[in-house]
C-alpha cells in the first residue's frame, strides 16, 4: 500500500518532465499524506487534487461521520462498483519521487522509502474523479509487491514506464489492465530511524486496501 510519498521537484519542473501545462495555484507539500493535495497529470494538465476518494461512513446510531479518504485501489478491484467508472473514464498519472512503507514492530515502526535508481520523479498509475466533499480527488493503483520489499509489504504502487504512460491514459480498459503488474526492474531502498506516525497531524496510518 502507499499512504505516504515524496515529491521533491517543483510544479514547473514536473510539468516539463511530463510535457503538460501546469494549472495555476498548485501548492503541495514535499511529503504527501492522505486527505492532502498532491500533483496529478490528468486531461493534459498538471493539476492539484486531494489524495483519497471519499468513503461515506456512519456511526452506531446511523449518523453521518466524516468521510474516510481511500488512497489506494487494488488492481483486482478496478472493475468493481467503487472504482469502475473512474478506471474506465478517468485514469491519471501521479508523479512520485519515493514512497514509504512502515517497517518494524507495532508501535515502533519506522519509515522505509522506495524509489527508482537514477530517477528523481517517476509516474505511478492513478484514478481520479470529482467529489462533493473535497472537489477533485485521486487514488493510487496498487499491485503485488517487488521482491526487494517482500519483508515489509506485499503491495506496491503500479509504476509506469514512459512508454506505458500513454497507454494508461489513452488506451482501452483492457490496455490499462494489461499494464497492472509488478515493476520488474530494481528499486532503491532507504531505511530510516524516523517514526512512522511521527509526522504531525497528517501522519499516515495503515488502513486496509479497498
What are its keywords?
hypothetical protein yedk fold; 16 strands; mainly beta; 210 residues; nine-stranded mixed sheet; globular
How would you describe what is shown here?
The protein is mainly beta and 210 residues long. It has a single domain, classed as Alpha-Beta Complex (hypothetical protein yedk fold). It is built from 4 helices and 16 strands. The strands form 3 sheets. Strands 2, 4, 5, 8, 9, 12, 13, 14 and 15 form a 9-stranded mixed beta sheet that branches. The chain starts with a strand and ends in a 15-residue tail after the last strand. The model is unreliable at 199-203 and 205-210 (pLDDT under 50).
Q: What is this entry, summarized?
A:
With 210 residues, the chain is mostly beta strands. It has helices at 11-17, 84-89, 162-170, 173-178, and strands at 5-6, 21-22, 31-32, 37-42, 45-51, 53-58, 64-70, 72-74, 91-96, 98-103, 110-115, 122-131, 135-144, 155-157, 159-160, 188-195.
Amino acid at each position: 500500500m502507499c499512504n505516504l510519498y515524496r515529491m521533491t521537484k517543483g510544479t514547473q519542473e514536473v510539468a516539463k518532465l511530463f510535457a503538460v501545462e501546469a494549472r495555476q495555484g498548485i501548492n503541495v507539500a514535499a511529503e504527501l499524506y492522505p486527505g492532502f493535495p498532491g500533483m496529478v497529470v490528468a486531461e493534459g494538465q498538471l493539476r492539484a487534487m486531494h489524495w483519497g476518494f471519499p468513503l461515506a461512513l456512519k456511526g452506531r446510531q446511523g449518523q453521518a461521520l466524516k468521510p474516510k479518504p481511500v488512497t489506494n485501489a487494488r488492481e483486482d478491484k478496478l472493475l468493481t462498483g467503487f472504482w469502475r467508472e473512474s478506471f474506465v473514464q478517468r485514469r491519471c498519472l501521479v508523479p512520485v519521487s519515493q514512497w514509504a512503507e512502515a517497517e518494524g514492530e507495532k508501535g515502533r515502526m519506522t519509515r522505509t522509502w522506495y524509489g527508482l535508481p537514477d530517477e528523481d520523479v517517476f509516474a505511478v498509475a492513478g484514478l481520479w474523479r470529482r467529489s462533493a466533499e473535497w472537489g477533485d480527488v485521486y487514488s493510487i493503483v496498487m499491485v503485488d509487491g517487488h521482491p526487494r520489499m517482500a519483508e515489509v509489504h506485499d503491495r506496491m504502487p503500479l509504476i509506469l514506464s514512459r512508454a506505458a504512460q500513454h497507454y494508461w491514459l489513452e488506451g482501452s480498459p483492457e490496455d490499462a489492465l494489461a499494464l497492472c503488474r509488478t515493476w520488474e526492474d530494481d528499486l532503491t531502498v532507504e531505511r530510516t530511524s524516523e517514526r512512522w506516525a511521527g509526522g504531525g497531524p497528517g501522519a499516515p496510518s495503515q488502513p486496509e486496501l479497498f
